[in-house]
Amino acid sequence: MARVYDVIVLGGGPVGINAADRAHAEGLSVALVERELVGGECNFWGCVPSKSLLRPVLAVAEARKVDGAREAVVGAIDAKGVFARRDRYVTNWDDAPVADVVLGMGVDLVRGHARLDGARRLVVTTAERRLELHARHAVIVCTGSTAAVPDLPGVAEAKPWTNRRATDSSTVPARLAVVGAGGVGVEMATAWHGLGSRVTLLARTAGLLPRMESFLGEHVHRGLVEAGVEVRTEVLVTELQRPGGTGPIQVTLDTGERLEVDEILFATGRTPNTADIGLETVGLAPGSWLDVDDTCMARGVEGDWLYALGDVNHQALLTHQGKYQARIAGAVIGARANGLALDSDPWSAHVATANDLAIPQAFFTDPEAASVGLTSAQATQRGHRVRTVDVDMGQSVPGANFYADGYTGQARMVVDEDDQTLLGVSFVGPGVVEMLHSATVAVAGRVPIARLWHAVPCFPTISEVWLRLLEAYRDGAPAG
User: Fold this and answer.
1) Superkingdom of this entry's organism (predicted)?
2) Is 371 within the bounds of a domain?
3) What's the average model confidence in pLDDT over 167-180?
4) Other Cβ atoms closer than 10 A to 149
5) Which of 318, 335, 355 is the last residue of a domain?
6) Same domain as 459, residue 402
7) pTM of the predicted model, to two decimals?
8) Residue 326 CB neighbours (<10 A)
């Protein structure tokens, strides 16, 4: 007989766990289905292990920027110790602690591969059994995404790394090529260079972090080169050769040049994990990103029961954004299941802002880079009348130079001149990622410039950059 629940969640990563928790908090019975490790990509191959690898590298880099401290930095980073630290944070890829948290929520954990089998029905299979699940009210798809590897000649034989191998390897390759100019590419180039690899970063774009304000990528590019990473922009990989799948890899570029490396990492985008979850049984295309409304309900499915959260809806492939969507969807599903009138007008504008405008992103490079909201170009393209304000943090923020001698960094705010609020804020420099939430509050809350003057930054901290930005806005040129 089929097991019946109010809500069934496909995917036990942070987004799915949060969705299950919120739905259960609404008084609903919930099953969470996971085919791999409970905790998902973020816990075991994404944010957690990557930041565990990066922090020792950045800690040493920061110490070297402070007179008196740099003299204490002797020798190379102990890669073995860094790997042990990472293994501790991913609990040695044992998902029992996370599974215990799920069970402690009062949520049923079902292990196996789940496929939709028509409206509100799923079939979960393992090597030993086949289980049918029915949902009274909602099915939530939180199956995430997988690294996209380009279909190049020789790619299968080359056995390239993706983010998974880049974060779970405990062997430092002597020579590593990193393909990709985005967050994963620049972070993994930073980490593996710090761990002892000779890293070459290959980007098809003219600059790094191409979706951000250009100065972020310029600072990160400079930091990588100064550290010893070779950065090549506007190049494409056209072929790989690794006879027998072992030994060095010959990498051919569109320029005709060849590089020899020991491993190659592709950080060139993601594809949704929706190819084999039965979307065709409810009228959707297998393997597609799922289109959703402001409540994260999937469009194109009759009956108002299918939701899609996190990477699969392609709004922002970020763990924190998916968890935010889980909180929204959990409240919506609870209201509908309990027969309450759902008046989304008071908060739908906030949801739209959080999902479209106020999306924070942090990159743990040297220097760090962080942004929220629109770039100046994006704001102009959307028809806003904007003023862009820039501040050289090393020149104007005393707290920055206490943080790092000879501090180099930049901040920018993009102001909507029609309502005197912020459309976007970007920072690059040592220690800036911890300032990102203040910028997110300002953008998401549409805090007027006049009110920001009364948010007093503490002296002497890097956060004094806010005062310098407001002063530059007050004294600056008219809006463009």
Assistant:
1) Bacteria
2) yes
3) 98
4) 17
5) 355
6) yes
7) 0.94
8) 27
Of the residues 355, 389, 420, which one is the last residue of a structural domain?
Answer: 355
Report whether pLDDT(477) > 60.
no
Residue 80 included in any domain: no
Cite the annotated binding site for FAD by residue number. 51, 143-145, 311
Name the 3-class secondary structure at 114.
strand
CATH number assigned to the domain comprising residue 170: 3.50.50.60
pLDDT number for residue 444: 93
Write the Ramachandran bin of 351: left for phi over 0, alpha for psi from -120 to 50, otherwise beta: alpha
Do both 302 and 450 map to the same domain?
no
Residues 264 and 286 occupy one common structural domain? no
Mean pLDDT of the chain: 95
Q: Two tokens at 203? A: 């980007």
Which pair of tokens denotes residue 272? 């949704």
pLDDT per residue as tens digits for the range 211-232: 999 999 999 999 999 999 999 9
Q: Which helix (H) or strand (E) segment is 123 a member of?
A: strand 121-125
**Can you say which residues are annotated as belonging to the binding site for NAD(+)?**
180-187, 269
Tell me the C-alpha distance between 319 and 48, whole Å.
11
Judge if 291 and 311 occupy the same domain. yes
Same domain, residue pair 174 and 164: yes
- pLDDT at 478 > cutoff 60: no
Judge if 142 and 159 occupy the same domain. Answer: no
Q: What's the pLDDT at 480?
A: 40
The CA distances from residue 198 to 46, 91, 229, in Å, are: 22, 29, 7
178 and 238, same domain (yes or no): yes
Task: Judge contact between 431 and 401, C-beta under 8 A.
Answer: no
Task: Report how far residue 241's alpha carbon sits from residue 248's, in angstroms, rounded to the nearest whole number.
Answer: 9
- Tell me whether residue 415 is in a domain: yes
The residue segments making up the domain with residue 179 are 155-269
| pLDDT, tens only, 323-369 | 999 999 999 999 999 888 776 665 566 676 777 789 999 999 999 99
Mean pLDDT to the nearest integer, 396-405: 95
Write the pLDDT tens digit of every residue in 264-299: 999 999 999 999 999 999 999 999 999 999 899 999
The pLDDT assigned to 346 comes to 57
CA distance linking residue 445 with residue 70, whole number of Å: 41
Choose between 126 and 90: higher pLDDT.
Answer: 90
Number of domains in the chain: 3
Structure tokens given for 77: 């980073």
Pick the closest to residue 320 from 289, 360, 283, 353 (CA basis). 360
For the record, the structure tokens of 81 come out as: 């110790």
- Return binding residues: 51, 143-145, 180-187, 269, 311
